[in-house]
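Quick question, first post here. What does this chain look like in 3D?
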Amino acid sequence: MKIDQLREKELQNPEFAKGYTIVKEKLASAVSLYKAGEAAGLTQKELTEKAGTT
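> Answer (accepted):
Ran it through. Tokens below.
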């Protein structure tokens, strides 16, 4: 079974689908933040300091 097929099968489970959506949204936010920092020329350390995270 290919990963895409497995994911589609698992997404039929409402509990899995809810968790998957939450994680997918968190990842999208993290990628957007990373790209914004990269575009601004910030290091990872500078970005986390500006974001208030460590």
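The longest helix spans residues 14-39.
The mean pLDDT is 93.
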